[in-house]
Amino acid sequence: MEFDKSKILTCVTADQLVEGQLGWANDTISWLESDVIFIPPYAVSKSNDIEFPFESKERGKRRYFYPAPEPLPFAVGDTVEIIKDVIFPPNSPNLKGLRFKVDAIYRQDDGDQYMAVVADNGRRMAFIDPDLTKWAKKVQEPTNEDIKPGTILHVNGYSKPRTTTKASEPSFKVGDRVELTTSQLPFFRKGTQGTVSNTKLDSCKVHVNVDNRGEWAINKADLKIITQPTYRPFANAEEFKPYRDEWFKKKGDVGFDRAEYYDNVGIKNSKGFFLTYADFVACYERENGEPCGIKEQA
């Protein structure tokens, strides 16, 4: 912050001090400037001393006062919603009504407020204005507990808000295979798939390792869990019989094998090892990657 001598209050202008105003008080201009640079501001009040009109618990009675700048309207990590028309670059979608995370915010030497915001897709932009509240407002994102029918949900970035119709959004766990139910161009198309990698977020989002695209934070409302089929062991020799000529391999291995013998309990491979049908479905897979058992549901 640049030290501006014109902002100093003296015994002549002491009536401009607001009781309890944050700032610095000292007896010389050089000491006051040093305080502004190195010491956090503190509350200052008017004293009954004409020569030393400024008083604080930290400094006692002092001759001069320098006001601290007004606190910034947002903090790093806040979610903000754009409240003015913003079309940048030209011919791009209007950002009004969309939400972003505050990535950096500070006051420049000229007094203007600087704020950088980031979308969930990683795109970053900055706003510079003496008053950032002209451009954005702070919003509170709903948690899972807050989401009821009719809750308006947002994605931080370029997707338009939507309203829920379900009592709650889907519950995800790490490892779930998921599919995007809405297009989020230019980044993802509807139907894009990935794997949930982190559910410990302070909003209605999860981190998803999108296939071949890295990790992204995506709104739960825009995802659905891909139901994985389940497999059970073969019940007996008769149930295994249609599969007796198929190739199979142990999960994680490279070489394939075939059954040389089978009965109502299990199969024997070409090396003479006997596998129960329970071990067979748990540890082995077919050429197409499916477990060696009977599919129960899609």
Question: Are there runs of 5+ residues with pLDDT below 50, and where?
Answer: none
CATH class of the largest domain equals Mainly Beta
Number of E-state strands:
24
Q: For the report, how would you describe the main beta sheet?
A: 5 strands, antiparallel
Give a description of the structure:
The chain has four domains: 5-67, no CATH class; 79-139; 144-225, SH3 type barrels; 230-297. It has a five-stranded antiparallel β-sheet with strand order 4-3-2-1-5. A five-stranded antiparallel β-sheet has the order 9-8-7-6-10, with no helix packed on it. The protein is elongated and about 105 Å long. It is mostly beta strands. The protein has three helices and 24 strands. It has helices at residues 29-38, 237-240, 277-283; strands at residues 21-26, 42-46, 54-56, 60-62, 64-67, 79-82, 99-107, 113-118, 124-129, 136-139, 152-153, 162-163, 177-180, 193-198, 205-210, 214-219, 223-225, 230-232, 248-250, 259-262, 266-269, 274-276, 284-286, 294-297.
Name its key features.
298 residues, 35% strand, SH3 type barrels, elongated, 5-stranded antiparallel beta sheet, mainly beta, 3 helices, 24 strands, 4 domains
Describe what is shown at a glance.
Helix content is 7%, strand content 35%.
Please write out the topology.
Layout: E1 21-26, H1 29-38, E2 42-46, E3 54-56, E4 60-62, E5 64-67, E6 79-82, E7 99-107, E8 113-118, E9 124-129, E10 136-139, E11 152-153, E12 162-163, E13 177-180, E14 193-198, E15 205-210, E16 214-219, E17 223-225, E18 230-232, H2 237-240, E19 248-250, E20 259-262, E21 266-269, E22 274-276, H3 277-283, E23 284-286, E24 294-297
Antiparallel strand pairs: 1-2, 1-5, 2-3, 3-4, 6-7, 6-10, 7-8, 8-9, 11-12, 13-14, 13-17, 14-15, 15-16, 18-24, 19-23, 20-21, 21-22
